[in-house]
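Entry for the shared binder. Reason: the reviewer on the internal report wants the predicted structure included alongside the sequence.
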Amino acid sequence: MKLPDSLELHGPRLKFVNGAHSNFQEIQKILNDEITMQYLQFLMRKNEGGWTLDPLIERHQKRREKQAEGVGLFFDVYEIATSRFVGTAGFPSLELDHRRGEFGLILNRNFWRNGFGTQCHLIGLSYAFETLNLNRVEFLTSIKNTPLRKFYDKVGIAQESIRKQYYLENGGFVDFVVYATFQREWETLKTKLSARGQ
């Protein structure tokens, strides 16, 4: 299956936008924000003085190459009612031959705790299971990311394993936790996400 060159996915309050262009200025603000990135410190490029536009453009080009190869798919996320940029989401890893992928998101902290994270999971997983026909989707997060880990527990996304000393962060290694859900669980999970994300 070939991934489309550009794509829009819609939920009740959010839309995912994928294409040749991206909102680099807003992504730069998010990736350089200490609070937003508190569980993803290793992505902040602190040794390089933070994210500037040129590395962001290069990052986007590499992501477009992954999409053309069918091994990744990335979106800008917008609030439909206001057109405000909410964050980014997508599949940093896809193995369509084996019907599996990884899903993740980074939302501007101004949009936390209002159901947008839940909606992002609903939109992304709907596409994964209903369009891409994936069998397995996994999620990786820092062992310190208690809010996201509690969310996965509440909606029934099971923890599978802990990857010890997985990322180097501020001079120390951080464990990451792997969660996963499967096609056979999707209808139940979809109902839970729909109820929480309204």
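Summary line for the report: Helices lie at 24-31, 53-69, 116-131, 146-155, 186-196.
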